[in-house]
Amino acid sequence: MLTGKQKRFLRSKAHHLNPIFQVGKGGVNENMVKQISEALEVRELLKVSILQNCDDDRYDVADQLVEGTDAELVQVIGHTIVLYKESEENKTIVLP
């Protein structure tokens, strides 16, 4: 689990990032979870945006992504989810 201080640090790091995944009408599926997992291994920190036509609640979507990717939820703000997962091979972010 991340501490409050670590979450604040990661939020500041994520601020300038653009969302690279979008959850739409279909919701979260296996293929999307796999792709997000692979992206997290490379980037460690990423944003996922939830489109207007997504039927699921944004917190449900966040939970599904956290569960599927084994990542940490940094924050849900508006229609954007910030996820963090420590990389095994490409570690670049050093948590405080």
UniProtKB/TrEMBL annotation:
Annotated Gene3D superfamilies? YhbY-like
Q: Does the keyword RNA-binding apply?
A: yes
* PROSITE patterns, alphabetized: CRM
Q: Which residues form the signal peptide?
A: none
Q: What region holds the CRM domain?
A: 1-96
Q: Which keywords does this Swiss-Prot/TrEMBL entry list?
A: RNA-binding
Single GO molecular function? RNA binding
Q: Does the keyword ATP-binding apply?
A: no
Q: Name one Pfam family in it.
A: CRS1_YhbY
PANTHER family recorded: RNA-BINDING PROTEIN YHBY
Q: What is this protein called?
A: Putative RNA-binding protein YqeI
* Protein's organism: Gottfriedia solisilvae
What lineage does the source organism belong to?
A: Bacteria, Bacillati, Bacillota, Bacilli, Bacillales
